[in-house]
Amino acid sequence: MVLGILVDDAIVIGENVFAHRQQGKDFLQAAIDGAAEVLPSVAASIATTIVAFVPLLYVAGVMGKFLAVMPVAVIAALIISLVEAAFILPCHLAHAPATESFYDRARQWSHGWSPVWRYTLGSAVIGLAFLWAQLIYPLKRLAGLFSWLNQRSTRNLEFVIGKLYRPSLAWAIDHSALTLCGAVSILLLSLGLVASGMTPFNVFPELDSKQILARVVYPDGTPAAVTNAATDRIEAAVRELSKRYQLQEGAPVVRVVQKSVGQISATGPLGPDTRTNGSHVGGVNVELTDSSERSLRSSEIIAEWRKLSGDFPGADSVTFGTPDFGPGGRPIEFKLLANNREMQRLEAAIEETKIKLGEYAGVFDVADDSRPGKWEFQMRVKPEAMAMGVPMADLAETVRGSYYGEEVMRLQRGRHEVKLMVRYPREDRRSLADFEEIRVRTIDGAERPITELANVQVERGYSEINRIEQLRSITITADIDEKVGNAYNIVQDLRANFMPGLLEKSPGVRVLWQGQQERTTESMESLLMGLLVALIAMFVLLTIEFRSYVQPLIILAIIPFGVVGAVWGHFVQGMEITMFSLFGIVALTGVVVNDAIVLIDFINLRLRDGAPIKQALLDAGTQRLRPVFLTSVTTVAGLMPILLERSFQAQIVIPMATSLCFGLMLATVFVLFLVPTWYNVYAAILPSTSHVDAAESAAQRRSGIASTNLDSSAKRAGDGAADHEAHGTPETNW
């Protein structure tokens, strides 16, 4: 991803060295002057890019951990590239191309040797030089091809600059108000694509997974035969689906099918509570062929699999989906909390919420983690028994001993001890008909029926009880078909329109948002705070570089227009804007300002040389178009392999590459027109000497001359009219 960004500084320095060569300077002097002239602006460009990637280091939550390595690698690569471009590249560019071949130089080199060495070692050196010349002969032809291509591209670029860009730039400068209004209109139109849902925002979209799974959960205590029959139906459905696909496409879609009964793993991240045991649970895991070998996405296969499997009467939940990879979380997930006294209200709120979720288009597999457990006898000691001194522990131990047994002694059998347990006969233990006949011995030695001492009720408890902050917690989850609905919009509608009324009707119940919503809020807050700090740091760096408070604002004003390209790039590719798209936009802020820095620096240079304001703007645009164009093209070219990749791993970073690639392409066009236009407005609004003073201050800082001389400032103020005449009246229709 950073491959194209790394060469930006080298392109700017190399192009400027080439411009100094065109002025007639020798290679060494051109390398020194060209590198020294643009090094401050190049260093500022790299610094702003580094600052733009710094916020990605401090993204909170799981998203931040998932992304933390990338900005570290990018920042390290940028620092090394700056050192190479500043010190190593000029050394290479200072060498003039050799006029003699390696073979001729070898002959001249060995000519001064003694005859013994000349005819022994000298002959070997000349022979190797001859072989080398023959080996690189095809490369010379290739070099000629590249030279011809270079001449043709230079001629075409000069035509574009002279016939298309320069007249268009002059018109934009002369009609500054119209140009700026048009740019702002395009920005608002792009934001409207997101607001209208034409380019929807989805925090972490569903990826085309190589693994899919199905889970069926019956009430606790269901015989394993029932669960096994359900998983057989699910397995048969996926195999039937694979046969249909093989008949249509000529290749199977399924590689491996694994069925399990009695133990399943949850689809969420691994942890202590992600496995469920018991005869009432079963699942089917399926490994699909690689995404490049099939035309159906995993979501389409899952939808067809669900349809072929049919209904499962009596099941608590039946879910089809993919394992949760990455930091996204479930599309819709939140918890409702209440204390034990409000359980009826909590359960009523849960059911009402599930019904509401089922009304949204595209929402399926709505479930909660509050499942009934097995039927059980629940005993409560009667007040009379408590008066007799019978505790609940005695009742529990008696019931346990009746069915599980009581240890009365241990027998020695060789090296082992064998427990001797006393309990009811097997036929009595397999039936609860005689439960009321259980006798409990009290303190006075009498044996009384258990029903005389305790109230016994047959009730169904919960299979699990979860608590958060000492409150009962029930989690509601749902999946969504992203072609029909949008999880972010559904959650926002729930928060704004449904949940306030539900909580008002259910006092004591509160909501805790989790899943994508919780992780989005957590990551977005830290990302926005980091972006704000990065923009302030960029402003400080640019202020130091240009010795002006307005020129950095001109440069930073181009950042919003990078969003235009990012939004339209997602729209053209039919992609949703994701969290990683926002990461790409944050990184784009440092990349798009690089071209603006190069333009502003050259405008200041032309003004310092005495050029009129409009001439300086036109010269800066035409002479800096080549490096601006090349830096953008190399960055886009470096991102193309990611955009064209179709592997599962690349699906995560493709939105980020899309933001960088398309955002930079359109931002380059905006930079070439808007930066000169804004500078023209800046020169028209502020006094005519302000922009000249900023240019001279930057020049003095580079040459080591102090720019705080009061007499010099007073002289500039006194010669304002002369300066105004020398630099011309800014031509503008503002």
In short:
With 734 residues, this protein is of the alpha+beta class. It folds into 4 domains: 1-97, Multidrug efflux transporter AcrB transmembrane domain (Multidrug efflux transporter AcrB transmembrane fold), CATH 1.20.1640; 154-204 and 547-707, Multidrug efflux transporter AcrB transmembrane domain (Multidrug efflux transporter AcrB transmembrane fold, Up-down Bundle); 208-324, Alpha-Beta Plaits (2-Layer Sandwich), CATH 3.30.70.1430; 374-462, Multidrug efflux transporter AcrB TolC docking domain, DN and DC subdomains.
List the helices and strands and how they pair.
Blueprint: H1 3-6, H2 8-22, H3 27-53, H4 61-67, H5 69-93, H6 102-111, H7 115-119, H8 121-135, H9 137-174, H10 176-195, E1 211-217, H11 224-249, E2 254-265, E3 275-288, H12 298-309, E4 317-321, E5 332-338, H13 343-358, E6 363-368, E7 372-381, H14 383-387, H15 392-403, E8 406-413, E9 416-422, H16 426-429, E10 439-441, E11 447-449, H17 450-453, E12 454-462, E13 466-468, E14 471-480, H18 487-505, E15 510-514, H19 515-546, H20 551-556, H21 559-573, H22 579-608, H23 613-644, H24 650-685, H25 690-703, H26 710-718, H27 720-727
Helix pairs in contact: 2-3, 2-5, 2-23, 3-5, 3-19, 3-22, 6-8, 9-23, 9-24, 10-21, 10-24, 11-12, 13-18, 19-22, 21-22, 21-24, 22-23, 22-24, 22-25, 23-24
